[in-house]
Structure formats: C-alpha cells, structure tokens
Amino acid sequence: MNYEAVIGLEVHIQIKTHSKVFTRVAAGYGQPANTLTDPVVLALPGTLPVMNKAALDAIIKAGLLLGCEIAPVCKWDRKNYFYPDSPKNYQISQYDQPICLGGSVEIELPGPARNVMGEHKRIPLTRIHLEEDVGKLNHFATESLVDYNRAGTPLMEIVSDPAMHSADEAFAYLTSLRATMIYGGISDCDMEKGQLRCDANISIRPVGETKLGTKVELKNLNSISFVRDGIAHEIKRQIAVLERGGTLVQETRDYDGQTGASQSLRSKEMAHDYRYFPDPDLMPVKVDEAWQERLRAECPELPFPKQRRFAESYQLPYTLTSVLVWDRTLADFFESTVKLVGPAKAQAVGNWITNDLLRELGAAHLEIAASKVSPAHIAALIGLFDAGSVLTNAAKEIFIEMFATGDLPGAIADRRGLRAAPTDAGELEQWCRDAIAANAKAVAEFKAGKDSAINAFKGPVMKAAKGKADPKRVDAALRQLLATM
Known about the structure:
Layout: E1 3-14, H1 53-65, E2 69-70, E3 73-74, E4 77-80, E5 90-93, E6 100-101, E7 104-108, E8 120-132, E9 136-139, E10 144-147, E11 154-160, H2 167-183, E12 196-206, E13 216-221, H3 224-243, E14 251-256, E15 261-267, E16 277-278, E17 285-286, H4 289-296, H5 303-314, H6 318-324, H7 328-341, H8 346-364, H9 375-386, H10 392-405, H11 409-416, H12 425-437, H13 440-447, H14 455-464, H15 471-483
Parallel strand pairs: 13-14
Antiparallel strand pairs: 1-11, 1-12, 2-6, 3-17, 4-5, 4-16, 6-8, 7-8, 8-11, 9-10, 12-13, 14-15
C-alpha cells in the first residue's frame, strides 16, 4: 500500500525583548543560573503579572508579516501542568482567543538542480499565540538543577495546519519562517540558545484517504536539519509498524539527531488535560486598527518578494538572488552598492559580494557588519575595472588586500603597481595581427559564425602584453581586424 504523510509543526520562538513578558526583570541568555528572576518569575505569593507591550507589538508584527488576521480582542488563559521547570505549576498562554489567526508561510522546495529555483507554495497557519517560556532543567551525574532564567521570557507559538507532506517541506517551512522572524527583528532564532524550538506532529494515511491517521509528536528537535531527519525517520517507522500488522498509538516520542533513533516518552496530552481557564489577573487586550497600522509601517520586505524584485529590477540570475536575499544585512549592502554604480552594474556587484566578500568573511569568521569593505569600496573597484585601470587578476588581488586593510582600491593599486599600463594602439594592433596570423583554423571558425573562436587569439595577445592590456580593447581590436579579412 502507498502511504501519504501529513505533517504539522508547532514552532516556539522567543521574542527579542529587554524584559520578560509579565514582569520587568531582564530577559537574556548565558547569565549565571537563577540570576534573571524576581518574585513574579518565581511565583511567590502575592505577586501579579503585568503585560509587556513590546511583546505584544512583536507578535502582532509577526502576524502582519505572515498575513494573519489580528484579533480585535484577545485574552489570557492558564494552562495547567506540573513540571519542576514551571514555578507556578501553570503557564500563562492563550487558548480560545489567540492574537493571530490564519496566515501562511511561503516556502521553496529543492529545485531539480542546485542553481535552479524549486517549486514555491504556501503552508497555511492555524494560529499564533503569545505565552511565557518555562525554565530549564540541567541534569548532572547525581543531581538536577532547575534554572529559572528562561522562565517568563515572551514566547510565540506558531501552529501550522497539518498541510505538509514531506520532510523537505518541513525543512523549507522552518527555513522560511526563521528568516521572516529575523528580518522583522522579532527574534534572533538561535536554536543553540533555545530561541527557536520545534515539535512535529506526524501521521500517515493511505494515498487518497482524507481522514487523518494517528498522530505522533516528535520532541527535542534542536536543529532544522534534525527536524527534517526526525520527520523522515518517523514516516518510515510508522509505515513499518503498519506493514507488519501493528497499530500506531498517539504518543510523544524523543528523537535523537545524533543516533537517528527515537523512543517513546509518554502518551500525548489532550487539550482538556491542561484544564484551561481565563487568567483572572490579566485583562483582555483590544488591538485597534491604528495599532496595527503603526506596526505594519515597520514591516520589512521579506526574502521571497525581495528575491522576485531583484530578479525583475536588476535582471539578476537565481544563483545570485538565492544567496543575497536570505541575510537582510547582505541584501541591504547589495542595494547600497547598486545605488552607487547604477542598476546596469547590479550583476557585477552581486558577483563581487557572493563570490569574493562572502568568501573572505567566511575565512575570517566575520559577519558583514564587521567587514572593513563598504559599498563604496566595491563601487570604486568596479569603477577601476570598467575604466580599464585594473584587470581581472589585479582586481582580485586588490579585493583581498582591501578586505584585510580597509584601504580604498585606488590606493592599493598604486601602492602595489597593479594598474594596467596604457597600451599603444599601434602596438596592440600588431599583437592582434600576429595572433591572427598564427591561427588560421580559428580565423576560419570565426568567419564561419563561431563567435567563441575569437578567444583563441586573446591568450597570445595578453601574453605579448604581459597581462597589462585591457581585455575590452583587445576584443574590439581583434573584431575590427577580423571583419576586414
């Protein structure tokens, strides 16, 4: 029997705020254990929560970026469960009135080749709601430590519809969602710091069946690659269970990305197990149109729309747009450079950034914000190259030194003697004549319509010029001589 997988993802994303969601104590990572706490975080008797408006701004902005309907009124509920990392023994969350409903995430599936765009589709969302994060358990040989530093950090839960059907779709969904949150300044989404966590709900059913199968939840997926691998593993496991006559049970399983194996943790809780009820200490929130419009004005252009604009406005190939748009700082750097040199030079700018700048940044383990190379540096280098003042190999050398020193390309060219020497027109013509006379076969091929045959003459000419001739002048001189033959 052929089976179809049905996948939904629950993604928890920590919102980047200075303080926690219901108290003014600082939110942060990497501090000594239990130092980012106060009576509210520790749920001491007599304390009351106070809403952090910055967290509300961030989740509304996230909803706008993803095309959600923003609820005119939302409220807060208590989700009851008893774990040592939850000091109140309940979590303040949202149950039946979340702040964001609907929306979707645009994804791109792998293309037929690495340099070819894949299929685009939209994965619908069910809801986004705001809640507080819990603490963290650290287990040692003979004891466990409960660290409440993370407890109370504002947390979005983004719930997709069960609308994905492969591990690749889930990987693409998380990649796109993460980029959207980073673009919007909502979260840094660093999975190593727990700022983005994902649970995957997976079921299978016979192809053609509309009823959903038994759902299994995968927990502890701490990288996007592990999400993809864990889903692929679980789909195979479920099919194997059914094919040997077994029965699937609704449960939560732990997936180990290092070993590629999973094990059962517990039977899956249902909504009624959490005994939700409205939080009596927090008032409902009204979100009017003016509030939404203020945040809508702050929403940036997202990666896929930016990619389409780069392709249309600058005539950039997919190989460049697919690299440039995923880092907002990189995309801004590209457009700042294009403004200096003009749209006609956009592809040259893209090539310098994606090939040379990213190579040097990677080797130096630097972010682009720390680079000594600015848009003005690249614009000046392109200007020298277009004027014939420096040739290709010299420009590459100049870039490397420019990255290391921050000096302007003209100064580097003068200091190192890398400017192309002016070539006498008569001398250039003679070099071209000599190259043509030495290669009758290439002459015949060029005259027969094979334009690339002209390249056979360029090597000898550049050799005679000791690499200092302008390639554009060489090409023009060769074509002029060949046209008269």
